[in-house]
Batch of 3 targets.
Target 1
Amino acid sequence: MTDALINSIDINKSRKGKTVLDVPANELINSVAMFFKEKNVIKLPKWSSLVKCSHANEIVPLNPDYMYYKAAAIARMLYITKSKTVGVGSIRTMFGKKERRGAQPAKFMRASGKIIRVLLQQLKENKYVENYKNKDQDVSYGLVLTSNGRTELDKIASKIAKKK
Protein backbone atom coordinates (compact mmCIF):
# COMPACT_ATOMS: atom_id res chain seq x y z
CA MET A 1 0.00 0.00 0.00
CA THR A 2 2.66 2.50 1.00
CA ASP A 3 4.98 1.40 -1.83
CA ALA A 4 2.26 2.08 -4.39
CA LEU A 5 1.64 5.51 -2.87
CA ILE A 6 5.35 6.37 -2.89
CA ASN A 7 5.78 5.18 -6.49
CA SER A 8 2.77 7.24 -7.63
CA ILE A 9 4.37 10.52 -6.47
CA ASP A 10 6.49 12.26 -9.11
CA ILE A 11 9.79 12.75 -7.34
CA ASN A 12 12.77 14.13 -9.24
CA LYS A 13 11.24 13.43 -12.64
CA SER A 14 11.38 17.03 -13.84
CA ARG A 15 15.10 17.48 -13.10
CA LYS A 16 17.55 16.01 -15.54
CA GLY A 17 20.65 16.03 -13.35
CA LYS A 18 21.41 14.66 -9.92
CA THR A 19 22.31 16.78 -6.93
CA VAL A 20 24.11 16.23 -3.65
CA LEU A 21 20.80 15.28 -2.04
CA ASP A 22 20.31 12.37 -4.46
CA VAL A 23 23.46 10.39 -3.61
CA PRO A 24 24.67 8.73 -0.39
CA ALA A 25 26.73 11.01 1.83
CA ASN A 26 29.71 8.69 2.32
CA GLU A 27 30.20 8.15 -1.42
CA LEU A 28 29.92 11.87 -2.11
CA ILE A 29 32.38 12.81 0.64
CA ASN A 30 34.90 10.21 -0.59
CA SER A 31 34.64 11.48 -4.17
CA VAL A 32 34.85 15.16 -3.23
CA ALA A 33 37.85 14.46 -0.99
CA MET A 34 39.68 12.78 -3.88
CA PHE A 35 38.71 15.71 -6.13
CA PHE A 36 40.18 18.18 -3.61
CA LYS A 37 43.34 16.08 -3.37
CA GLU A 38 43.81 15.73 -7.15
CA LYS A 39 43.16 19.42 -7.90
CA ASN A 40 45.30 20.64 -4.94
CA VAL A 41 42.40 22.66 -3.56
CA ILE A 42 43.45 21.82 0.00
CA LYS A 43 47.09 22.08 0.99
CA LEU A 44 47.98 20.21 4.16
CA PRO A 45 49.67 22.33 6.85
CA LYS A 46 52.84 21.03 8.50
CA TRP A 47 51.01 20.44 11.77
CA SER A 48 48.20 18.35 10.24
CA SER A 49 49.75 15.03 11.28
CA LEU A 50 50.16 16.13 14.89
CA VAL A 51 46.78 17.53 15.93
CA LYS A 52 43.58 15.90 17.11
CA CYS A 53 40.28 16.86 15.47
CA SER A 54 38.62 17.44 18.82
CA HIS A 55 39.39 17.68 22.51
CA ALA A 56 37.21 14.58 22.89
CA ASN A 57 39.48 12.46 20.68
CA GLU A 58 42.14 10.35 22.33
CA ILE A 59 44.56 10.06 19.39
CA VAL A 60 45.30 11.83 16.12
CA PRO A 61 43.45 10.59 13.01
CA LEU A 62 44.92 7.42 11.52
CA ASN A 63 44.09 8.43 7.94
CA PRO A 64 46.76 10.83 6.60
CA ASP A 65 44.16 12.34 4.21
CA TYR A 66 41.65 13.25 6.92
CA MET A 67 41.83 16.97 6.08
CA TYR A 68 40.50 16.33 2.56
CA TYR A 69 37.60 14.32 3.96
CA LYS A 70 36.79 17.00 6.53
CA ALA A 71 36.85 19.70 3.84
CA ALA A 72 34.50 17.60 1.71
CA ALA A 73 32.16 17.10 4.67
CA ILE A 74 32.17 20.85 5.37
CA ALA A 75 31.37 21.60 1.71
CA ARG A 76 28.52 19.08 1.78
CA MET A 77 27.20 20.55 5.01
CA LEU A 78 27.21 24.07 3.55
CA TYR A 79 25.41 22.75 0.45
CA ILE A 80 22.66 21.11 2.47
CA THR A 81 22.23 23.84 5.09
CA LYS A 82 19.57 26.40 4.20
CA SER A 83 20.70 28.83 6.88
CA LYS A 84 23.01 31.64 5.84
CA THR A 85 24.38 32.07 9.36
CA VAL A 86 26.65 29.03 9.40
CA GLY A 87 30.06 29.94 10.76
CA VAL A 88 33.05 28.27 12.35
CA GLY A 89 31.27 27.95 15.70
CA SER A 90 28.24 26.16 14.30
CA ILE A 91 30.43 23.86 12.20
CA ARG A 92 32.43 23.03 15.34
CA THR A 93 29.18 22.03 17.03
CA MET A 94 28.10 19.92 14.03
CA PHE A 95 31.38 17.99 14.10
CA GLY A 96 31.48 17.69 17.89
CA LYS A 97 31.07 14.50 19.86
CA LYS A 98 30.86 13.20 23.41
CA GLU A 99 34.05 12.89 25.39
CA ARG A 100 34.53 9.78 27.46
CA ARG A 101 35.50 10.83 30.97
CA GLY A 102 35.95 7.54 32.78
CA ALA A 103 33.58 7.15 35.72
CA GLN A 104 32.05 10.58 35.12
CA PRO A 105 29.19 10.95 32.62
CA ALA A 106 30.14 11.72 29.03
CA LYS A 107 30.13 15.39 28.08
CA PHE A 108 29.68 17.00 24.66
CA MET A 109 32.81 18.66 23.25
CA ARG A 110 32.99 20.74 20.09
CA ALA A 111 35.47 19.98 17.31
CA SER A 112 38.73 21.85 16.81
CA GLY A 113 38.21 25.33 15.39
CA LYS A 114 41.70 25.76 13.93
CA ILE A 115 41.30 22.88 11.48
CA ILE A 116 37.89 24.13 10.35
CA ARG A 117 39.16 27.72 9.98
CA VAL A 118 42.14 26.63 7.87
CA LEU A 119 39.94 24.49 5.61
CA LEU A 120 37.39 27.27 5.16
CA GLN A 121 40.15 29.77 4.32
CA GLN A 122 41.48 27.44 1.64
CA LEU A 123 37.98 26.85 0.24
CA LYS A 124 37.50 30.64 0.14
CA GLU A 125 40.81 31.11 -1.73
CA ASN A 126 39.65 28.62 -4.36
CA LYS A 127 36.24 30.34 -4.68
CA TYR A 128 34.17 27.43 -3.35
CA VAL A 129 32.93 29.26 -0.22
CA GLU A 130 32.19 32.93 0.42
CA ASN A 131 30.87 35.12 3.21
CA TYR A 132 27.18 35.87 3.02
CA LYS A 133 26.60 39.62 3.22
CA ASN A 134 23.32 41.47 3.37
CA LYS A 135 22.84 43.86 0.45
CA ASP A 136 21.86 46.77 2.71
CA GLN A 137 24.62 46.35 5.27
CA ASP A 138 28.28 45.50 4.92
CA VAL A 139 28.14 42.92 7.72
CA SER A 140 29.00 39.26 7.13
CA TYR A 141 26.42 36.88 8.60
CA GLY A 142 27.91 33.50 7.76
CA LEU A 143 29.23 31.24 5.04
CA VAL A 144 27.58 29.94 1.86
CA LEU A 145 28.78 27.91 -1.10
CA THR A 146 29.43 29.87 -4.26
CA SER A 147 27.80 28.89 -7.52
CA ASN A 148 31.16 27.40 -8.56
CA GLY A 149 31.19 25.23 -5.42
CA ARG A 150 27.60 24.09 -5.97
CA THR A 151 28.24 23.13 -9.59
CA GLU A 152 31.38 21.16 -8.71
CA LEU A 153 29.52 19.21 -6.02
CA ASP A 154 26.61 18.59 -8.39
CA LYS A 155 28.97 17.35 -11.12
CA ILE A 156 30.56 14.89 -8.71
CA ALA A 157 27.12 13.78 -7.50
CA SER A 158 25.94 13.17 -11.06
CA LYS A 159 29.04 11.06 -11.77
CA ILE A 160 28.28 8.96 -8.69
CA ALA A 161 24.64 8.56 -9.75
CA LYS A 162 25.68 7.46 -13.27
CA LYS A 163 27.92 4.73 -11.84
CA LYS A 164 24.94 3.12 -10.12
Note: The longest strand covers residues 104-109.
Target 2
Amino acid sequence: MIGRTVPTVTFKKRVRDESIGGDNPFKWIEETTQDIFGGNRVLVFSLPGAFTPTCSTFQVPGFEENYENITSLGIDEIYVISVNDTFVMRKWMLDQDVKKIKFIPDGNGEFTRLMGMLVDKSNIGFGPRSWRYAMVVDNGVIEKFFEEPGRCDNADDDPYGETSPENIIKYLKG
Protein backbone atom coordinates (compact mmCIF):
# COMPACT_ATOMS: atom_id res chain seq x y z
CA MET A 1 0.00 0.00 0.00
CA ILE A 2 2.86 2.39 0.75
CA GLY A 3 3.45 4.68 -2.23
CA ARG A 4 0.01 4.02 -3.67
CA THR A 5 -2.33 6.92 -4.48
CA VAL A 6 -5.64 6.77 -2.63
CA PRO A 7 -8.67 5.94 -4.81
CA THR A 8 -10.60 8.75 -6.46
CA VAL A 9 -14.05 8.79 -4.88
CA THR A 10 -16.81 11.32 -4.25
CA PHE A 11 -18.45 11.12 -0.83
CA LYS A 12 -22.07 12.27 -0.39
CA LYS A 13 -22.59 14.21 2.83
CA ARG A 14 -25.29 16.24 4.53
CA VAL A 15 -24.06 19.39 6.25
CA ARG A 16 -25.77 21.98 8.38
CA ASP A 17 -26.61 25.21 6.54
CA GLU A 18 -28.35 27.76 8.78
CA SER A 19 -29.35 29.83 5.74
CA ILE A 20 -31.89 27.12 4.90
CA GLY A 21 -33.83 27.63 8.14
CA GLY A 22 -36.61 25.40 9.42
CA ASP A 23 -36.43 22.15 11.34
CA ASN A 24 -33.97 20.48 8.95
CA PRO A 25 -31.35 23.06 7.90
CA PHE A 26 -29.13 20.65 5.98
CA LYS A 27 -27.98 20.41 2.39
CA TRP A 28 -26.28 17.72 0.35
CA ILE A 29 -22.68 18.30 -0.64
CA GLU A 30 -20.08 16.24 -2.42
CA GLU A 31 -16.57 15.92 -1.02
CA THR A 32 -13.90 14.27 -3.13
CA THR A 33 -10.76 12.48 -2.12
CA GLN A 34 -8.90 15.41 -3.70
CA ASP A 35 -10.70 17.77 -1.29
CA ILE A 36 -9.59 15.66 1.66
CA PHE A 37 -6.11 14.51 0.66
CA GLY A 38 -4.89 17.07 -1.87
CA GLY A 39 -2.07 19.20 -0.51
CA ASN A 40 -2.44 17.82 3.01
CA ARG A 41 -0.75 15.26 5.22
CA VAL A 42 -3.62 13.53 6.95
CA LEU A 43 -4.31 10.56 9.17
CA VAL A 44 -7.30 8.40 8.25
CA PHE A 45 -8.54 5.53 10.35
CA SER A 46 -11.23 3.11 9.28
CA LEU A 47 -13.37 0.86 11.37
CA PRO A 48 -16.23 -1.63 11.02
CA GLY A 49 -19.09 0.60 12.08
CA ALA A 50 -20.59 3.52 13.94
CA PHE A 51 -21.89 2.83 17.44
CA THR A 52 -19.98 -0.46 17.68
CA PRO A 53 -18.18 -1.27 20.96
CA THR A 54 -14.46 -1.03 20.14
CA CYS A 55 -14.98 1.84 17.72
CA SER A 56 -17.04 3.87 20.20
CA THR A 57 -15.23 2.94 23.40
CA PHE A 58 -11.60 3.11 22.32
CA GLN A 59 -10.86 4.15 18.76
CA VAL A 60 -12.88 7.35 18.15
CA PRO A 61 -12.42 8.67 21.72
CA GLY A 62 -8.70 7.83 21.56
CA PHE A 63 -8.12 9.83 18.39
CA GLU A 64 -10.27 12.71 19.63
CA GLU A 65 -8.30 12.79 22.90
CA ASN A 66 -4.95 12.64 21.06
CA TYR A 67 -5.86 15.14 18.32
CA GLU A 68 -3.44 17.89 19.41
CA ASN A 69 -0.63 15.43 20.05
CA ILE A 70 -1.04 13.89 16.58
CA THR A 71 -1.44 17.18 14.71
CA SER A 72 1.64 18.55 16.48
CA LEU A 73 3.59 15.74 14.76
CA GLY A 74 2.99 17.04 11.24
CA ILE A 75 -0.56 15.84 10.56
CA ASP A 76 -2.93 18.48 9.15
CA GLU A 77 -6.19 16.66 9.88
CA ILE A 78 -7.57 13.40 11.31
CA TYR A 79 -10.47 11.59 9.63
CA VAL A 80 -12.49 8.52 10.51
CA ILE A 81 -14.14 6.63 7.66
CA SER A 82 -16.73 3.91 7.95
CA VAL A 83 -19.13 2.05 5.67
CA ASN A 84 -22.08 3.98 7.10
CA ASP A 85 -24.25 6.69 5.56
CA THR A 86 -23.95 10.39 6.35
CA PHE A 87 -26.94 10.37 8.73
CA VAL A 88 -25.50 7.57 10.89
CA MET A 89 -22.03 9.13 10.87
CA ARG A 90 -23.40 12.52 11.98
CA LYS A 91 -25.47 11.03 14.81
CA TRP A 92 -22.47 9.00 15.92
CA MET A 93 -20.26 12.11 15.90
CA LEU A 94 -22.83 13.91 18.08
CA ASP A 95 -23.23 10.90 20.38
CA GLN A 96 -19.44 10.72 20.82
CA ASP A 97 -19.26 14.51 21.39
CA VAL A 98 -16.53 14.76 18.76
CA LYS A 99 -15.30 18.29 18.10
CA LYS A 100 -11.92 17.73 16.42
CA ILE A 101 -11.68 14.68 14.17
CA LYS A 102 -13.75 14.69 10.98
CA PHE A 103 -16.10 11.95 9.82
CA ILE A 104 -16.26 10.56 6.28
CA PRO A 105 -19.35 8.53 5.34
CA ASP A 106 -18.51 5.76 2.87
CA GLY A 107 -22.13 4.64 2.67
CA ASN A 108 -21.70 2.53 -0.46
CA GLY A 109 -18.32 1.17 0.65
CA GLU A 110 -16.79 2.43 -2.60
CA PHE A 111 -13.62 3.91 -1.10
CA THR A 112 -13.23 0.92 1.22
CA ARG A 113 -13.65 -1.54 -1.66
CA LEU A 114 -11.14 0.33 -3.83
CA MET A 115 -8.70 0.29 -0.90
CA GLY A 116 -9.06 -3.50 -0.84
CA MET A 117 -10.33 -3.36 2.73
CA LEU A 118 -14.02 -4.29 2.28
CA VAL A 119 -14.84 -7.52 4.12
CA ASP A 120 -18.03 -9.48 4.64
CA LYS A 121 -19.24 -9.40 8.23
CA SER A 122 -22.53 -11.20 7.58
CA ASN A 123 -21.66 -13.65 10.35
CA ILE A 124 -22.59 -10.89 12.82
CA GLY A 125 -25.30 -9.27 10.71
CA PHE A 126 -23.25 -6.34 9.42
CA GLY A 127 -22.92 -7.23 5.73
CA PRO A 128 -20.08 -5.50 3.85
CA ARG A 129 -17.89 -3.42 6.17
CA SER A 130 -14.36 -2.13 6.48
CA TRP A 131 -11.56 -4.08 8.05
CA ARG A 132 -9.89 -1.93 10.70
CA TYR A 133 -6.96 0.05 9.24
CA ALA A 134 -5.28 3.45 9.45
CA MET A 135 -2.99 5.35 7.13
CA VAL A 136 -0.91 8.48 6.91
CA VAL A 137 -1.55 10.06 3.52
CA ASP A 138 0.65 12.84 2.14
CA ASN A 139 -0.92 14.76 -0.76
CA GLY A 140 -2.94 11.73 -1.81
CA VAL A 141 -0.10 9.19 -1.53
CA ILE A 142 -0.05 6.58 1.23
CA GLU A 143 3.05 7.18 3.36
CA LYS A 144 2.36 4.58 6.05
CA PHE A 145 -0.31 1.89 6.34
CA PHE A 146 -1.46 0.14 9.51
CA GLU A 147 -3.73 -2.91 9.39
CA GLU A 148 -5.11 -5.15 12.08
CA PRO A 149 -4.05 -8.79 11.62
CA GLY A 150 -6.34 -11.53 10.31
CA ARG A 151 -8.27 -9.70 7.59
CA CYS A 152 -10.81 -12.07 6.09
CA ASP A 153 -14.51 -12.40 5.47
CA ASN A 154 -16.62 -13.35 8.49
CA ALA A 155 -13.70 -13.15 10.93
CA ASP A 156 -14.37 -14.54 14.38
CA ASP A 157 -12.67 -11.62 16.09
CA ASP A 158 -12.12 -7.88 15.68
CA PRO A 159 -8.52 -7.11 16.64
CA TYR A 160 -7.50 -3.64 17.75
CA GLY A 161 -3.99 -2.44 18.49
CA GLU A 162 -2.08 -1.79 15.27
CA THR A 163 -4.46 1.08 14.43
CA SER A 164 -4.55 2.61 17.91
CA PRO A 165 -3.62 6.27 18.34
CA GLU A 166 -0.71 5.21 20.55
CA ASN A 167 0.78 3.05 17.79
CA ILE A 168 0.38 5.78 15.20
CA ILE A 169 1.92 8.37 17.51
CA LYS A 170 4.91 6.04 17.95
CA TYR A 171 5.32 5.98 14.16
CA LEU A 172 4.95 9.76 13.82
CA LYS A 173 7.58 10.35 16.49
CA GLY A 174 9.95 8.22 14.41
Note: The mean pLDDT is 95.
Target 3
Amino acid sequence: MKKILLFVAITMSVVACKENLDERRSNDPQYEGEFIYVDDGAVLKGDNFIYGVTIDEMSRHLNDKITPIKKDNYDMVPVIVKGTLGKKAEGVEGWDEVLTITEIVNVSETPSEADIRIEDKKKKEATN
Protein backbone atom coordinates (compact mmCIF):
# COMPACT_ATOMS: atom_id res chain seq x y z
CA MET A 1 0.00 0.00 0.00
CA LYS A 2 2.86 2.37 0.85
CA LYS A 3 4.43 1.72 -2.56
CA ILE A 4 1.21 2.63 -4.33
CA LEU A 5 0.87 5.86 -2.35
CA LEU A 6 4.52 6.73 -3.04
CA PHE A 7 4.03 6.04 -6.76
CA VAL A 8 0.90 8.24 -6.85
CA ALA A 9 2.68 11.04 -4.96
CA ILE A 10 5.69 10.95 -7.32
CA THR A 11 3.45 10.87 -10.39
CA MET A 12 1.43 13.84 -9.16
CA SER A 13 4.63 15.78 -8.40
CA VAL A 14 6.02 15.18 -11.88
CA VAL A 15 2.75 16.19 -13.55
CA ALA A 16 2.42 19.29 -11.38
CA CYS A 17 5.99 20.39 -12.15
CA LYS A 18 5.68 19.90 -15.89
CA GLU A 19 5.34 23.33 -17.47
CA ASN A 20 3.33 24.05 -20.61
CA LEU A 21 5.44 26.35 -22.79
CA ASP A 22 2.41 28.27 -24.06
CA GLU A 23 1.31 29.09 -20.53
CA ARG A 24 4.69 30.30 -19.30
CA ARG A 25 4.38 33.91 -18.16
CA SER A 26 7.18 36.40 -17.96
CA ASN A 27 7.67 40.01 -16.95
CA ASP A 28 10.24 40.50 -19.71
CA PRO A 29 9.82 43.19 -22.38
CA GLN A 30 7.56 42.40 -25.33
CA TYR A 31 8.85 42.34 -28.93
CA GLU A 32 6.74 42.38 -32.08
CA GLY A 33 8.20 41.43 -35.43
CA GLU A 34 8.55 38.87 -38.17
CA PHE A 35 10.13 35.56 -37.15
CA ILE A 36 12.09 33.18 -39.34
CA TYR A 37 13.82 29.98 -38.29
CA VAL A 38 16.20 28.19 -40.65
CA ASP A 39 18.69 25.36 -40.21
CA ASP A 40 21.51 27.49 -38.84
CA GLY A 41 19.70 30.30 -37.04
CA ALA A 42 16.63 32.32 -36.21
CA VAL A 43 15.86 36.03 -36.52
CA LEU A 44 13.20 38.43 -35.26
CA LYS A 45 12.88 41.50 -37.52
CA GLY A 46 10.88 44.48 -36.26
CA ASP A 47 10.30 47.94 -37.67
CA ASN A 48 13.41 49.34 -35.97
CA PHE A 49 15.49 46.28 -35.12
CA ILE A 50 16.83 42.93 -36.22
CA TYR A 51 17.79 40.48 -33.48
CA GLY A 52 19.31 37.06 -33.68
CA VAL A 53 17.27 34.59 -31.64
CA THR A 54 18.77 32.06 -29.26
CA ILE A 55 18.19 28.53 -30.53
CA ASP A 56 16.63 26.79 -27.55
CA GLU A 57 13.44 25.02 -26.52
CA MET A 58 11.28 28.17 -26.82
CA SER A 59 12.52 29.16 -30.29
CA ARG A 60 12.04 25.58 -31.52
CA HIS A 61 8.53 25.60 -30.03
CA LEU A 62 7.79 28.88 -31.84
CA ASN A 63 9.12 27.35 -35.06
CA ASP A 64 6.77 24.38 -34.59
CA LYS A 65 3.86 26.85 -34.31
CA ILE A 66 4.77 28.83 -37.46
CA THR A 67 5.73 25.91 -39.70
CA PRO A 68 2.15 25.07 -40.76
CA ILE A 69 1.51 28.76 -41.49
CA LYS A 70 4.46 29.27 -43.84
CA LYS A 71 4.00 28.77 -47.59
CA ASP A 72 7.73 28.11 -48.11
CA ASN A 73 10.81 27.67 -45.91
CA TYR A 74 11.80 31.34 -46.10
CA ASP A 75 8.46 32.92 -45.20
CA MET A 76 8.49 35.17 -42.15
CA VAL A 77 5.54 35.06 -39.77
CA PRO A 78 4.47 37.99 -37.57
CA VAL A 79 4.75 37.15 -33.87
CA ILE A 80 4.68 38.82 -30.49
CA VAL A 81 7.08 37.38 -27.91
CA LYS A 82 8.58 38.34 -24.59
CA GLY A 83 12.26 37.85 -23.92
CA THR A 84 15.61 39.06 -22.72
CA LEU A 85 18.02 40.90 -24.94
CA GLY A 86 21.75 40.38 -24.71
CA LYS A 87 24.97 40.81 -26.66
CA LYS A 88 26.32 37.95 -28.75
CA ALA A 89 29.27 36.04 -27.37
CA GLU A 90 32.69 37.25 -28.51
CA GLY A 91 34.14 35.37 -31.44
CA VAL A 92 30.73 34.11 -32.51
CA GLU A 93 29.25 35.07 -35.87
CA GLY A 94 25.77 36.50 -36.06
CA TRP A 95 23.73 39.51 -35.03
CA ASP A 96 25.19 41.84 -32.39
CA GLU A 97 22.08 41.58 -30.22
CA VAL A 98 20.48 38.25 -29.38
CA LEU A 99 16.95 37.74 -28.08
CA THR A 100 16.21 34.81 -25.78
CA ILE A 101 12.46 34.14 -25.95
CA THR A 102 10.78 33.57 -22.59
CA GLU A 103 7.11 33.68 -23.67
CA ILE A 104 5.16 33.32 -26.90
CA VAL A 105 2.37 35.91 -26.73
CA ASN A 106 0.83 35.68 -30.21
CA VAL A 107 1.44 34.08 -33.60
CA SER A 108 -0.20 35.41 -36.77
CA GLU A 109 -2.37 33.07 -38.81
CA THR A 110 -0.78 34.21 -42.10
CA PRO A 111 2.82 34.79 -43.22
CA SER A 112 4.12 38.29 -43.94
CA GLU A 113 4.00 39.67 -47.44
CA ALA A 114 7.39 39.44 -49.13
CA ASP A 115 9.13 42.80 -49.61
CA ILE A 116 10.78 41.48 -52.75
CA ARG A 117 9.41 38.69 -54.91
CA ILE A 118 11.89 36.73 -57.00
CA GLU A 119 10.33 34.90 -59.90
CA ASP A 120 11.83 32.03 -61.83
CA LYS A 121 12.12 33.27 -65.43
CA LYS A 122 11.94 29.74 -66.86
CA LYS A 123 8.80 28.98 -64.87
CA LYS A 124 7.18 32.24 -66.00
CA GLU A 125 7.99 31.53 -69.67
CA ALA A 126 6.54 28.01 -69.38
CA THR A 127 3.19 29.34 -68.21
CA ASN A 128 2.95 31.93 -71.05
Note: Residues 28 and 125 are 51 Å apart (CA to CA).
